[in-house]
From TrEMBL:
Family annotation (SMART domains): Molybdop_Fe4S4
Source organism of this protein record: Photobacterium rosenbergii
Domain named 4Fe-4S Mo/W bis-MGD-type: residues: 6-62
PANTHER family: NADPH-FE(3+) OXIDOREDUCTASE SUBUNIT ALPHA (PTHR43105:SF9), RESPIRATORY NITRATE REDUCTASE (PTHR43105)
Protein name per its UniProtKB record: Molybdopterin-dependent oxidoreductase
Keywords annotated in UniProt: 4Fe-4S, Iron, Iron-sulfur, Metal-binding, Molybdenum, Nitrate assimilation, Oxidoreductase
Cofactor(s) this protein requires: [4Fe-4S] cluster; Mo-bis(molybdopterin guanine dinucleotide)
InterPro entries in the record: Asp_de-COase-like_dom_sf, BFD-like_2Fe2S-bd_dom, BFD-like_2Fe2S-bd_dom_sf, CT_Nitrate-R-NapA-like, MoPterin_dinucl-bd_dom, Mopterin_OxRdtase, Mopterin_OxRdtase_4Fe-4S_dom, Prok_molybdopt-oxidoreductase
Family per record: Belongs to the prokaryotic molybdopterin-containing oxidoreductase family. NasA/NapA/NarB subfamily.
Length: 929
C-alpha cells in the first residue's frame, strides 16, 4: 500500500520502542488528525493515549523558531537571534578552536533516541570518523545499555532475537522490570488478548504492584535489586530437576559450568527467599511453571537495566533461556523492550560511545580498516569514548571544553541533576539542538539550533523487534527549523569535512548506512580473518534503494538480505554471532544495590513513568488531556509507611536523599510495599518548583554498561504543613515565572490555557494578596467593569476562600480559587472526590468561556452543573472522568469493566486505564455491601 492513502500519510509514533504505525492528515480545522495504521505489524491500528494525542502536541506554540547565540549586553548574557550561517560558523569555529588547543577528546556529542537513524548516523560519522574522538554517547545509555552489554556477551552482538508475534504464540509470558501496561500499552493489549485467546499464563516480577499486575496469574514482589538471585535460583532449579535441553547446550552454547557454579549459591529455595523476600510457594510456582512450559517469552525492560548490576541481571535471564534452548523460536525467546522510538536505531549506527557503526567494534582491526576506507578518513577513532556520566564528569574536571546536545534534556534526565545543571552552567561552550524553546538544558546553551520536531522530520526508526519503519513528514517546519542531519552536515562542512557530508536528502544517508552494514561480513574476500562471524545486522537488501523506493519503504525487520524479504527471528538454528558461533553462558554473581538503607534514609525510592506522560514532558506536556490523569509530581507510599511517618494522603512531603530534597504530593497506594516508595521522573524546572526527581539519584552505575541505578535510592520523608492553596488558570504560561516566591507549584497544560497549582505556608489572606499583586486583581467583591481596558473582573470572598475571574472580550482570561482546603482536587488515586463538598475539576475547561456559561457561574459557587460533572480524567483516549464512571457503576448496575466500557466508552481505546476501572469498581462495590 502506498504511504499516502488519499489524504492520510503513514508514519511512525514518536514515543516508546513499540514503534506503532500511525496515519495522519490535516483536517478541515487545520489541526493534525492521527489514527493507528491497521496495516502496520507492530500495532495493527492500536494506539495508546499518548499516540492518540500526538496531534495535540504539534504546532508553533513553545517552539524554537530561529538560531540563537548568547550575547553579552550590559553585564547580562542573553540569547539573540542570528541567521543560520552565523550560527553554523560559530559552532564550527568554536569546535575547531577547542580541538586545536586541547585535542579532539576535548569535545563531545550527547545525542538521543529521539533522533532518526539518519540523524544519528551523520552525528556518529562526524564525531568518530572525522573529529576522531569516540566522545559521542546517547540518552539510551540511561535505559538500554545493560541489555546491549548482556546481548553482546551472550549472543556476540546486540540482538533481540524474537518478534512481537511471539507474545501471541507463547504459553507463558514473564514480565520482569516492566510496567508494560503504562510504558508499552499496545504490547500490553496484545498480551491481554493472547491471555484470553490462548490461556497464556502471565507472571509479573516487580517490587511494585503496578497496573500490569491486572493480568498476572502470579505477581512476584521481589526486593529491589534481587533479580539475579531469583534467576540464578531458577537456573540451578532447572539443572537439578533435569529441565535443561542437553542437546542444545552441547551444540549451541559454551560456559554452562561456570554459570552453574555461580547459580548454585541459590541452589535451594531458602537462599532465594532470604534475598528476594518472596514466599517459598511463589518462588516454587514460578520455577515449576518455567521448567514445564516450552513456549516461554521473558520480557524485560528498565527495572532490569537501570541498575549497578543491570548487565548481569540481563545475562541471568538469558542463561535460563539458553539452558532450555528457548532463544529465537516461535513463542519462545528472551525479549528486551526499548524505551525510545529509535533507541535501537541509534545503537545500530554507533550512537553509543563504546561501539562503532553497523555493530562493528573497536577491538577488531578489520572493522577499523574497512570503516576508514568506506568513509575515506584517516582520522577514525580507534578506542571507545566516554559514556554519559563519565562525559559530564569530564566536563566538570575541565577535560571536555565543548559539548553539543541533540534532542534530549540531560539537565532533567541524568542522575544528580543539580550537579549536572551546575556542570552545564560552567561548561565553556554548550550547543543545544532542540525543537522546543524552553527546556532545563537549553537554559545553559551558548548556541541554540532550531531542529525539526516529530511531524516535520523524515527518516527511519527501528523498534524493539528490529523493525525499520519510515517516519514521514506530515507538516511544514515552523520558523527556520531544519533536519538534524542537515544541521550536523552543515557544521561538518564548515569544520572542513565537506566532501564526506554532501548529502542531498535523508535517502542518501540511509543508502550509505545500509551499504555500511555489508562491510566485514562473512564471505567478504577483503577480510584478513576469514573465520570472523557474520554480523546479523545486515541491510544489503536496502542498500540500493532509489529515492522513490526509500520514501515508499514498508516496515521490515532486519536482517534484510533481499528487498522486502525481512527476517522475523534470529538464532533459532543455534548459530550465534560469537567467534565460536556458540552462545555464551555468563557467570553472574548477585550483589546488593549500590546504596544501603540507614536510620537517616530508611526508605527505598523507585522511579519510573506514568501512563500518559513521556520523558521530561516537552512533548506530552503540550496536550491537555495527557496532563489530566496525573497532573503533578507525587510520591506513592504504603499505608503503613504513611502511618509511621505521619503522612496524610494528598498532603505534601519532603523527600530527601544524600544529594538533595524534593517537595511532592503524597499518594497512599497499595502499589508500594512497606519500606518502598515510588516517584515519576517527568517533571522539571519548567513545570514544577521542587519535583525534579533525578535530583535525588546518585551517579552509581553498572561497571560494564555504564547504566545508572535509578531504581533503588535510600530516602527519608517528612510531612509538610501548609496553610493555603490556590488553583490558577490563565492563557499565558509566562505567569509561571511569577511563582518563584512560592514553596510548591506546578504548571500544566489545559484546554486553551494553563492550570497552576500553588501550595503555601502563607495564610489564605497572604496568598490571596500575593496573587492580587501579581495579577492586578481588584479589591472589591462583586462585578467590576474596566471599559478602558475592555475587562470585567469578578471576585467572591469568604472567610476561608476567595474566587476571582477576569474577562477580556467577554471571555475568561484569568481565574483563581484560593482556599485553606483544595487537596481534593489534586488526586492521583482512582477514589472519588465526592467526599469533598467542593468541586474544582471544571477549572480545566474554563479558559475562553463567557460569563453566561453555567460552568463559569460554577466558579463562584463551587457546584458544577450535573451535565458537566466528568471529574478527574481516567480514560484519556475517550475523555471519560472519574465521576462519569462512578455514576455509571452506581446507577447502571455495572458489575464488570465491560459493563463500564459499554456505558461510558472508558477502556475502549488503548486499554491502559482498565486496571484503574477495575480498582474503582472493587472499591465502590465494597462500599455498597
Amino acid at each position: 500500500m502506498s504511504p499516502k492513502d488519499s489524504t492520510w500519510i503513514k508514519s511512525t509514533c514518536a514515543y516508546c520502542g513499540v514503534g506503532c504505525g500511525i496515519e495522519a492528515k490535516v483536517n478541515s480545522l487545520g489541526t493534525l488528525e492521527v489514527r493507528g495504521d491497521k496495516a502496520h505489524p507492530a500495532n495493527f491500528g492500536r494506539l495508546c493515549s499518548k499516540g492518540l494525542a500526538l496531534g495535540e502536541t504539534v504546532g508553533i506554540e513553545g517552539r524554537l523558531l530561529t538560531p540563537k547565540i548568547k550575547q553579552q549586553r550590559k553585564h547580562q548574557s542573553k540569547l539573540e537571534t542570528v541567521c543560520w550561517e552565523d550560527a553554523i560558523d560559530d559552532v564550527a569555529s568554536n569546535f575547531n578552536n577547542v580541538i586545536e588547543q586541547h585535542g579532539k577528546d576535548a569535545v563531545a556529542f550527547y545525542v538521543s533516541g529521539q533522533l532518526l537513524t539518519e540523524d544519528y548516523y551523520v552525528a556518529n560519522k562526524l564525531m568518530k570518523g572525522f573529529i576522531g574522538s569516540a566522545n559521542i554517547d546517547t540518552n539510551s545509555r540511561l535505559c538500554m545499555s545493560s541489555s546491549v552489554a548482556g546481548h553482546k556477551r551472550a549472543f556476540g552482538a546486540d540482538i533481540v532475537p524474537g518478534c512481537y508475534d511471539d507474545l501471541e504464540l507463547a504459553e507463558l509470558i514473564i514480565l520482569t522490570g516492566s510496567n508494560l501496561a503504562w510504558c508499552h500499552p499496545v504490547l500490553f493489549q496484545r498480551i491481554r488478548e493472547a491471555k484470553v485467546k490462548n490461556n497464556c499464563k502471565i507472571i509479573v516480577i516487580d517490587p511494585r504492584r503496578t497496573a500490569t499486575c491486572d493480568i498476572a496469574d502470579l505477581h512476584l514482589p521481589l526486593q529491589p535489586g534481587s533479580d539475579i538471585a531469583l534467576f540464578n535460583g531458577l537456573l540451578a532449579f532447572l539443572s537439578e530437576n533435569n529441565a535443561v535441553d542437553h542437546d542444545y547446550i552441547e551444540s549451541a552454547t559454551e560456559g554452562l559450568e561456570l554459570a552453574l557454579a555461580s547459580a548454585f549459591r541459590f541452589g535451594d529455595i531458602e537462599s532465594v527467599q532470604a534475598v528476594t523476600g518472596l514466599e517459598r510457594a511463589q518462588i516454587l510456582a514460578f520455577y515449576q511453571l518455567f521448567a514445564a512450559t516450552e513456549k516461554t517469552v521473558t520480557v524485560y525492560s528498565q527495572g532490569v537495566n537501570q541498575s549497578t548490576s543491570g548487565t548481569n541481571k540481563v545475562n541471568s535471564i538469558l542463561n535460563c533461556h539458553l539452558a532450555t534452548g528457548r532463544v529465537g523460536k516461535p513463542g519462545s525467546t528472551p525479549f528486551s523492550v526499548t524505551g525510545q522510538p529509535n533507541a535501537m536505531g541509534g545503537r545500530e549506527v554507533g550512537g553509543l560511545a563504546n561501539m562503532l557503526a553497523a555493530h562493528m567494534d573497536f577491538d577488531n582491526p578489520d572493522h577499523i580498516r574497512q570503516i576508514s576506507d568506506f568513509w575515506h578518513t584517516g582520522n577514525l577513532a580507534t578506542a571507545p569514548g566516554l559514556k554519559a556520566i563519565d562525559m559530564f564528569n569530564a566536563i566538570e574536571s575541565g577535560k571536555i571544553k565543548a559539548i553539543w546536545i541533540m534532542a534530549t534534556n540531560p539537565a532533567v534526565s541524568l542522575p544528580e541533576s543539580k550537579r549536572i545543571n551546575s556542570i552545564l552552567a560552567n561548561c565553556p561552550y554548550v550547543v543545544v539542538s532542540d525543537c522546543m524553546a524552553d527546556t532545563d538544558t537549553l537554559r545553559h546553551a551558548d548556541v541554540v539550533l532550531p531542529a525539526q520536531g516529530w511531524s516535520e522530520k523524515s527518516g527511519t526508526v527501528t523498534n524493539s523487534e528490529r523493525r525499520v519503519s519510515r517516519q514521514r513528514r506530515l507538516l511544514p517546519s515552523p520558523g527556520e527549523a531544519k533536519p538534524d542531519w542537515w544541521i550536523i552536515s552543515e557544521v561538518a562542512k564548515k569544520m572542513g569535512f565537506g566532501d564526506a557530508f554532501d548529502y542531498r536528502n535523508e535517502a542518501d544517508i540511509f543508502r550509505e548506512y545500509a551499504q555500511m552494514t555489508t562491510l566485514c561480513q562473512e564471505g567478504n574476500t577483503s577480510l584478513s580473518d576469514m573465520t570472523a562471524p557474520a554480523r546479523p545486522l545486515n541491510l544489503s537488501g536496502l542498500a540500493h534503494l532509489n529515492t522513490r523506493q526509500y520514501h515508499h519503504m514498508t516496515p521490515q525487520q532486519w536482517p534484510v538480505i533481499e528487498h522486502n524479504q525481512p527476517t522475523a527471528r534470529l538464532f533459532a538454528n543455534g548459530e550465534f554471532a560469537t567467534p565460536s558461533g556458540k552462545a555464551q553462558f555468563i557467570a553472574t554473581d548477585y550483589r546488593p544495590t549500590a546504596s544501603t538503607l540507614s536510620p537517616q534514609y530508611p526508605l527505598l525510592l523507585n522511579t519510573g513513568r506514568v501512563r500518559d506522560h513521556w520523558h521530561t514532558m516537552t512533548r506530552t506536556g503540550l496536550s491537555a488531556r495527557l496532563s489530566e490523569h496525573i497532573s503533578e509530581p507525587y510520591l506513592a507510599l504504603s499505608a503503613q509507611d504513611a502511618d509511621q511517618f505521619a503522612v496524610k494522603d494528598k498532603g505534601l512531603v519532603t523527600v530527601s536523599s544524600e544529594l538533595g530534597t524534593l517537595l511532592l504530593r503524597a499518594h497512599i497506594s497499595k502499589e508500594c510495599r512497606q519500606g518502598q516508595v515510588f516517584a515519576p521522573f517527568h517533571w522539571n524546572d519548567c513545570t514544577t518548583s521542587m519535583g525534579k526527581v533525578d535530583t535525588l539519584i546518585a551517579g552509581s552505575r553498572d561497571p560494564l554498561s555504564g547504566q545508572p541505578e535509578f531504581k533503588a535510592t535510600p530516602v527519608n520523608i517528612k510531612p509538610v504543613s501548609h496553610a493555603s492553596e490556590a488553583l490558577l488558570i490563565c492563557t499565558r504560561k509566562d505567569i509561571a515565572s511569577l511563582l518563584s516566591d512560592q514553596e510548591h507549584w506546578t504548571c500544566q497544560r489545559t484546554h486553551n490555557g494553563y492550570l497552576l497549582r500553588i501550595t503555601s505556608q502563607q495564610s489564605l489572606k497572604q496568598l490571596r494578596e500575593w496573587l492580587a499583586n501579581c495579577l492586578a486583581e481588584n479589591e472589591t467583591n462583586g462585578l467590576v467593569e474596566d471599559q478602558t481596558k475592555g475587562q470585567q473582573r469578578i471576585k467572591v470572598e469568604t472567610e476561608n476562600e476567595c474566587r476571582f475571574a477576569m474577562f477580556k472580550g467577554g471571555l475568561i482570561d484569568i481565574a483563581f480559587v484560593v482556599s485553606d482546603k483544595l487537596q481534593g482536587s489534586i488526586d492521583t488515586d482512582s477514589k472519588s472526590d465526592s467526599s469533598n463538598d467542593r468541586d474544582y475539576d471544571y477549572l480545566y475547561t474554563l479558559i475562553g468561556r463567557p460569563l453566561s456559561d453555567p460552568l463559569v457561574q460554577a466558579l463562584f459557587t463551587g457546584k458544577t452543573p450535573p451535565e458537566h460533572q466528568n471529574g478527574r480524567l481516567i480514560c484519556a483516549c475517550k475523555q471519560v472522568g472519574v465521576k462519569t464512571i462512578e455514576k455509571a457503576i452506581c446507577t447502571q448496575s455495572c458489575n464488570s469493566v465491560k459493563d463500564i466500557s459499554d456505558a461510558t466508552q472508558a477502556g475502549t481505546g488503548c486499554g491502559s486505564c482498565v486496571p484503574e476501572l477495575q480498582l474503582m469498581l472493587d472499591e465502590i462495590q465494597v462500599k455498597q455491601v
